[in-house]
Write a structure and sequence with these properties.
alpha+beta
């Protein structure tokens, strides 16, 4: 995962996935129908939801470029329980763009999503996110861990 370009909604760098870069990417998966995925992708592509996407190329070849804009490339990143893991990212690679640090609200949103997946502890998430291009040098591992500790406590209170 790396952060680049500027989000008008979040006010900082956006998260992208570059399948050509080695290493691991922590992610939280959601089981959705193809129509739901198409609607989510359309919203992120600034397109009108309600049009089905042809997922054939992404599922058979691993990648389908639908346009030149950010989030207009579909990628099949593997499988979980024999179900395809689809995401959308940019058609460019991580080395092709300059990193842009994410805003605090966006960083909080992404890190909390990873924490709520339940697969990693705060320390592992903080270390991972702090090392991501675009974040490294702007947000410290300790700062992200502290942010997650506060979010985790607030989430636990909300479930009580």
């Amino acid at each position: 995962m790396y952060f680049a370009t500027e989000s008008p909604v979040w006010g900082g760098g956006r998260a992208f996935y570059d399948p050509q870069v080695s290493g691991r990417v922590l992610a939280r998966a959601h089981l959705v129908k193809a129509e739901q995925f198409a609607d989510i992708a359309a919203q992120e592509m600034y397109r009108q939801p309600g049009t089905d996407l042809d997922l054939t190329e992404a599922l058979t070849r691993g990648r389908a470029v639908l346009g030149a804009g950010r989030y207009e490339t579909l990628v099949c990143a593997g499988q979980v329980d024999r179900m395809p893991v689809l995401t959308f990212t940019a058609p460019w690679g991580m080395a092709d763009v300059q990193g842009v640090p994410p805003s605090l609200p966006y960083l909080r949103f992404l890190a909390l999503g990873l924490l709520l997946a339940g697969a990693w502890d705060r320390g592992a998430i903080a270390a991972y996110v702090a090392a991501c291009p675009g974040v490294a040098g702007h947000w410290s591992e300790q700062g992200i861990a502290d942010l997650l500790e506060g979010l985790d406590r607030a989430h636990q209170r909300g479930r009580a």
